């Protein structure tokens, strides 16, 4: 309660605004659970006048989120992609959230831009159009031309935005902890973890220089391919609140008429686009997290350009391997494999396995033998997780959102597009890399190093244990029937483990180094030690 009071006092005005908007839109369950009705009504005059009778609960929430501003819009957009958390009527409504807002006047933008550039735009650019070509909740975008002739876009963060977002993030983070404590049924959704991810993503998006770094990092992955294009960043003009990058001339994938007039092959474009996205996700582990039609452009020569890198997703090597296993389970109609991956991802400790097994079998049956629509498959997969009280990890939810979005864009380019079929070459290439002899050798060497380290530390650990036993002040004697037999079993097991570790470490680390000397005596010693060790293990096993 003390922490709640401190948070409320620090961001009192913003909290009043939030409470007023939520109450005005009739989002009563959230208001009551979070205790917002107790807030003084000083700022409730901002509550909108809405005919609530005409709006469903999901519509009320969506309208309230739009009124609350960029932080809540981002939260709503994340939730719209979480079919594993919310029922369809909620995700469909939240999917209508847009990130387009009325642009701020140039007189409001100009002072901040001049401060960041260190001079008026007229002194930096030979041309600068003060009418924005795009306006979103985070930034506004202008078109300009450098003195050297290059066409660029100038992305400017909206003034005063960071203070509001930081206040929102503090309030939402605190609210997520309240939800986790007060609503036990919500704990499985890991609201604190979800909020932490949203906060990190928003802070990255606020830093426009970070967007430039993301662009260059992804561009470096495709340096050897001329069919995938990324805009050039002009760092001499870029900072936290301003991004200046190359203006990319391209055609949106939704503009069928212009694509045909340009003579572009939509099938090739779709294949190249998804191949690039999968290379980012499956091979490199970093990918464009929002590949919607506005962030992909078709260029001459059937090239694909990626733009807008405010949000990128990252996948660990382990997660990428799990994703390959999931794709394999789907393609092979393996219900058990599907269930195993889902349990591993969600970390569920006490699921209803009979129910989950039936749901997994029904899932593979539904998608059996037909051309797979990835968007439907992944949405169905997350729905299955939700219906079985399982929640997806955040990093995978981001990837799934990206895959569903990419699948939709590619289907606009090619209505017969099958992402699973198109993914085949990339998946096979990734499988060869991850399970190649070189990769397996590397993993084995890592295991051997661990075994060698454990074996080398064993004497120290035993010595430390004996010292601590000697220093003990309390002696406890327990006599149980069969304890002697159990003790002897434990001793023999410990001996086998210790010998096994030493032998394994010798065989994998020390023996090869001895052999490198080329001296027969060393080779003989190595073989002798290895033989004795194996014989000892077999003898211990026989006498157990």
SSE arrangement:
Blueprint: H1 2-10, H2 12-24, H3 28-33, H4 57-68, H5 70-80, H6 88-94, H7 106-117, H8 121-124, E1 125-128, E2 134-135, E3 139-146, E4 151-157, H9 161-182, H10 191-206, H11 208-221, E5 228-229, E6 242-246, H12 256-261, H13 266-284, E7 286-288, E8 296-299, E9 303-306, E10 312-314, H14 317-331, H15 335-346, H16 353-366, H17 374-387, H18 394-413, H19 419-422, H20 424-434, H21 437-471, H22 483-516, H23 520-542
Parallel strand pairs: 5-9
Antiparallel strand pairs: 1-3, 2-3, 3-4, 4-6, 7-10, 8-9
Number of domains: 5
Q: C-alpha Rg, in Å?
A: 30 Å
Structural class: alpha+beta
Report the portion of residues in β strands. Answer: 5-15%
Helix content: 55-70%
> Given the C-alpha coordinates, what overall shape results?
globular
**Average predicted confidence as pLDDT:** 77
Transmembrane segments: 521-541
Keywords: Membrane, Transmembrane, Transmembrane helix
Protein name: ABC transporter
Family: Belongs to the protein kinase superfamily. ADCK protein kinase family.
Structure, explained:
- GO terms for molecular function: ATP binding; protein kinase activity.
- Residues 127-486 form the Protein kinase domain.
- Belongs to the protein kinase superfamily. ADCK protein kinase family.
- This is ABC transporter.
- The chain contains 23 helices and 10 strands.
- It is of the alpha+beta class.
- A hairpin with a 3-residue loop joins strand 2 (134-135) and strand 3 (139-146).
- Helix 14 (317-331) runs antiparallel to helix 15.
- The longest helix is centred in the last third of the chain and has 35 residues, at 437-471.
- It is globular.
């Amino acid at each position: 309660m003390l922490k709640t009071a401190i948070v409320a006092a620090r961001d009192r005005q913003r909290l009043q605004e939030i409470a007023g908007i939520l109450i005005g839109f009739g989002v009563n369950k959230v208001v009551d659970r979070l205790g917002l009705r107790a807030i003084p009504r000083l700022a409730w005059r901002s509550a909108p006048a809405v005919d609530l009778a005409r709006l469903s609960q999901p519509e009320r929430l969506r309208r309230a989120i739009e009124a609350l501003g960029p932080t809540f819009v981002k939260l709503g957009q994340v939730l719209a992609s979480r079919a594993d958390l919310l029922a369809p009527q909620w995700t469909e409504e939240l999917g209508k959230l847009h990130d387009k807002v009325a642009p701020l006047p140039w007189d409001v933008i100009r002072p901040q831009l001049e401060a960041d550039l260190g001079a008026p735009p007229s002194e930096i650019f030979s041309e600068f159009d003060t009418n924005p070509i795009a306006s979103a909740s985070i930034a506004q975008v202008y078109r300009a031309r450098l003195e050297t002739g290059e066409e660029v876009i100038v992305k400017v963060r909206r003034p005063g935005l960071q203070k509001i977002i930081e206040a929102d993030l503090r309030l939402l983070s605190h609210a997520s902890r309240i939800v986790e404590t007060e609503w036990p049924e919500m704990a499985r959704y890991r609201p604190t973890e979800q909020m932490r991810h949203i906060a990190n993503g928003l802070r990255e998006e606020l830093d426009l220089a970070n967007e430039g770094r993301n662009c260059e990092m992804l561009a470096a992955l495709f340096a050897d391919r001329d069919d995938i294009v990324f805009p050039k960043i002009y760092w001499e003009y870029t900072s936290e609140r301003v991004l200046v990058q190359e203006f990319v001339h391209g055609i949106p994938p939704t503009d069928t008429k212009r694509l045909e007039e340009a003579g572009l092959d939509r099938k090739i474009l779709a294949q190249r686009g998804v191949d690039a996205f999968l290379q980012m996700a499956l091979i490199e582990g970093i990918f464009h997290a929002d590949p919607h039609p506005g962030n992909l452009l078709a260029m001459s020569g059937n090239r694909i350009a990626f733009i807008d890198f405010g949000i990128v997703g990252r996948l660990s090597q382990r997660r990428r391997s799990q994703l390959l296993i999931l794709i394999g389970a789907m393609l092979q109609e393996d219900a058990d494999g599907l269930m195993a991956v889902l349990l591993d991802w969600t970390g569920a400790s006490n699921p209803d396995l009979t129910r989950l097994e039936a749901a997994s079998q029904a899932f593979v049956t539904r998608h059996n033998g037909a051309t797979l629509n990835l968007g439907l498959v992944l949405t169905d997969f997350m729905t299955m997780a939700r219906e079985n009280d399982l929640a997806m990890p955040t990093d995978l939810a981001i990837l799934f959102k990206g895959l569903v979005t990419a699948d939709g864009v590619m289907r606009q380019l090619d209505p017969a597009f099958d992402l699973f079929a198109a993914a085949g070459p990339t998946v096979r290439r990734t499988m060869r890399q991850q399970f190649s002899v070189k990769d397996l050798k590397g993993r084995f060497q890592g295991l051997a190093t661990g075994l060698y380290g454990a074996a080398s530390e064993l004497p120290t650990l035993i010595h430390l244990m004996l010292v601590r036993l000697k220093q003990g002040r309390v002696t406890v004697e327990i006599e149980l029937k069969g304890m002697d037999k159990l003790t002897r079993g434990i001793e023999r097991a410990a001996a086998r483990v210790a010998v096994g570790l030493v032998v394994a470490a010798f065989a994998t680390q020390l023996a090869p180094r001895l052999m490198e000397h080329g001296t027969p005596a060393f080779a003989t010693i190595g073989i002798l030690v290895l033989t004795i060790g194996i014989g000892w293990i077999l003898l211990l096993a026989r006498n157990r």
